[in-house]
């Protein structure tokens, strides 16, 4: 018997809580019609405490939450004071504080990944012979950015390696493309905080992955173009050589970090220079700790005595010369590093290893991030109700009137770029928008141009950072930053102006959101496949040689193209296909549906859940463990939920199996 199928004896008497409430309210119910396959309810109820709006036909439509609070005119003076002080001002202060902690938790998350994978990322960069392969370069950019959780860090490593003649600019461009993909992993992780509500998770995950889809599609198109034409390299080279570039150390403005650094630097400080040294092949850096020890240093020049050997020729009286090797001591000015003060960050004082500190910091940052997002969503749900919500949603998601409506998206791109420049991070900006998409304040169609603007804004930030470089790094840093900028501009020109092309990333993101709403484990599956497994497999194949990459890659790409074409024809003109290809039913179910895998995950989850219930030997979520009124040594485990009070089973007793019979029953 399938773990999701109910016994026939239970179908006649089992009634869900929603159906009982509907019966009490006098509404007709139809158990067979309202439940989906395997007895599931396809329309999940909203979370406790949330309004219960009418669910539209389109699950991606913006939700209208009903305002059930007392109107202002009916409040007493005390009630008005309470609403202003607690609800309006209190919520604003709480939301500001939660956003501050949320941004700090993203910084902690980045530090944790650097401690856990920073040296690995540096070692990945050190494989110069593999990096020359453009495909491997993209995969290295993805893995390195995911490991350090910062595209600016991975880009700075690339600039350092180019300035050290370990890479050339043409080889670095695919790595920058990969970094553009890897930076979108953060807001995908953030969307997991709304996984409790299926509809919110659908919208949040779709809003997060629209960034992924744009980046992947742009790389798929522009990587071959850049490999065969080198247009990014040639265009930026002409631009850099046409201007007299001067270093501007005061150009970099850490607008947001001025607020967050005083707190984050009290918790942990990571030395990013160690990662760059590892990438350059410095053997000594591999044994150094990433936890910064000295936070304040200076460089002084001191006069030292330097002894070196020289060949000295001495003429003799008989006319011969004698050449001898002697030690010559001279005074020279030498630059030395003076250590002024140690770091007083909390984790830097414990003396723990990088891995231990990284694990603790990762758990702490994820806890803070999830808690902040949960409370942020609750506050936003309470704010965006009634007329205020209608005004805000209409303002954010509305278009210009008449023939100027096409300009709305381009203005939104500029807004996204400006906000990203302000907060100095595309990850922070898009991660902040993700919960708003989840609760229905921002539509995914409006999230898309904001994401494109974030891609532009982060490259402008990189250009400002490049202007702070000095010496031989200045020109190279600016050229790489310009390559990043024009890569994103080219992607926008491909995937935004034409409506048909614009819908491609959005439809792919909605498909992922719908799939995740039905199978919530798919979100983690997607994260591991797209950002870890796929780059690792491709990088490994590249390591063994082109023939391995082509041997596995070409058949896989051909199969994907064939499946895509057949799917399109099945939807548009199925009669043109052979009868066997009009559907995928001729294949085993596991090859065209996630349902068998979902059944396995569901069965495992139920086993763990009921084992936890059995360990407690108490009623948990409807589990009852009794035999003749006593708790047995091996508790019984229900295969089906217990019936409501007053409803008996066909044989008058609860049907159950003991733990020894459980596997056989399943």
Percentage of residues in DSSP E strands: 5-15%
Shape: globular
Oligomer: single chain
Strand order, largest beta sheet: 1-2
Q: Sheet bearing the most strands, described?
A: 2 strands, antiparallel
Per DSSP, the total helix count is 24
Radius of gyration: 31 Å
Helix fraction bin: 55-70%
The arrangement of helices and strands along the chain is: HHHHHHHHHHHHHEEHHHHHHHHHHEEH
How would you describe what is shown here?
59% of the residues lie in helices and 7% in strands. The chain contains 24 helices and four strands. It has helices spanning 8-11, 17-24, 31-34, 77-125, 128-131, 134-148, 151-163, 169-182, 185-190, 198-229, 231-242, 257-267, 272-279, 354-383, 386-397, 407-423, 426-439, 444-466, 473-495, 499-518, 522-544, 546-572, 595-616, 662-665; strands spanning 294-315, 321-342, 636-637, 657-658. The strands form two sheets. The chain has a two-stranded antiparallel sheet with strand order 1-2. It has a two-stranded antiparallel sheet with strand order 3-4. Strand 1 and strand 2 form a beta hairpin. It is globular, with a radius of gyration of 31 Å. The model is unreliable at 1-56 and 620-666 (pLDDT under 50).
């Amino acid at each position: 018997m399938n773990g999701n199928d109910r016994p026939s004896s239970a179908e006649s008497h089992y009634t869900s809580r929603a159906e009982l409430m509907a019966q009490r309210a006098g509404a007709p119910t139809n158990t067979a019609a309202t439940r989906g396959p395997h007895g599931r309810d396809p329309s999940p109820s909203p979370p406790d405490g949330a309004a219960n709006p009418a669910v539209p036909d389109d699950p991606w439509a913006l939700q209208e939450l009903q305002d059930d609070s007392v109107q202002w005119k009916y409040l007493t003076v005390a009630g008005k004071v309470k609403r202003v002080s607690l609800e309006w001002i209190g919520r604003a202060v709480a939301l500001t504080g939660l956003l501050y902690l949320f941004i700090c938790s993203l910084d902690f998350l980045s530090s944790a990944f650097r401690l856990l994978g920073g040296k690995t990322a540096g070692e990945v960069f050190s494989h110069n012979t593999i990096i020359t392969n453009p495909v491997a370069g993209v995969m290295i950019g993805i893995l390195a950015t995911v490991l350090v959780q910062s595209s600016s860090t991975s880009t700075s490593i690339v600039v350092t390696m180019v300035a050290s003649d370990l890479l050339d600019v043409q080889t670095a461009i695919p790595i920058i493309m990969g970094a553009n993909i890897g930076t979108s992993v953060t807001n995908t992780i953030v969307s997991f905080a709304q996984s409790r509500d299926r509809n919110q998770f659908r919208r949040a995950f779709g809003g997060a992955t629209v960034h992924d889809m744009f980046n992947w599609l742009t790389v798929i198109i522009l990587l071959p173009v850049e490999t065969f034409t080198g247009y990014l390299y040639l265009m930026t080279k002409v631009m850099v050589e046409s201007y007299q570039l001067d270093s501007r150390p005061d150009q970099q403005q850490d607008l947001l970090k001025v607020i967050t650094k005083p707190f984050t630097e009290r918790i942990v400080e990571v030395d990013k220079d160690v990662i760059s040294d590892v990438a350059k092949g410095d053997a000594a850096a591999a044994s150094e700790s990433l936890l910064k020890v000295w936070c304040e240093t200076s460089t002084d020049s001191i006069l030292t005595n330097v002894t070196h050997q020289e060949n000295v020729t001495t003429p003799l009286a008989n006319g011969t010369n004698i050449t001898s090797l002697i030690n010559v001591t001279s005074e020279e000015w030498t630059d030395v590093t003076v250590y002024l003060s140690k770091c007083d960050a909390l984790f830097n004082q414990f003396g723990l290893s990088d891995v231990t500190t990284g694990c603790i910091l990762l758990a702490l940052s994820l806890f803070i991030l999830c808690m902040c997002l949960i409370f942020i969503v609750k506050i936003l749900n309470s704010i965006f109700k009634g007329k205020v919500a209608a005004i805000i949603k209409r303002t954010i998601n509305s278009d210009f009137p008449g023939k100027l409506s096409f300009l709305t998206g381009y203005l939104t791109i500029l807004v996204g770029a400006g906000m990203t420049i302000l907060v100095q991070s595309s990850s922070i900006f898009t991660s902040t928008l993700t919960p708003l998409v989840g609760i229905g304040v921002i539509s995914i169609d409006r999230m898309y141009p904001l994401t494109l603007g974030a891609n532009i804004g982060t490259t402008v930030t990189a250009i400002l950072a490049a202007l702070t470089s000095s010496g031989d790094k200045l020109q190279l840093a600016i050229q790489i930053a310009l390559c990043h900028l024009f890569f994103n501009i080219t992607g926008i020109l491909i995937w935004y102006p034409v409506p048909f092309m614009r819908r491609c990333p959005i439809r792919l993101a909605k498909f992922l959101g719908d799939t995740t709403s039905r199978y919530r484990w798919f979100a983690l599956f997607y994260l591991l496949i797209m950002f870890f497994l796929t780059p690792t497999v491709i990088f490994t194949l590249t390591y063994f040689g082109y023939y391995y990459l082509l041997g596995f890659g070409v058949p896989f790409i051909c199969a994907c193209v064939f499946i895509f074409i057949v799917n399109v024809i099945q939807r548009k003109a199925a009669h043109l296909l052979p009868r066997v290809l009009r559907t995928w039913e001729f294949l085993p179910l596991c090859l065209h549906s996630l349902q068998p895998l979902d059944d396995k995950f569901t069965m495992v989850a139920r086993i763990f859940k009921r084992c936890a219930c059995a360990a407690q030997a108490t009623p948990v979520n409807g589990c009852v463990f009794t035999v003749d009124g006593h708790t047995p040594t091996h508790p019984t485990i229900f295969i089906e939920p217990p019936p409501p009070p007053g409803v008996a089973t066909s044989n008058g007793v609860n049907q159950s199996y003991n733990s020894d019979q459980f596997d056989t029953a399943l």
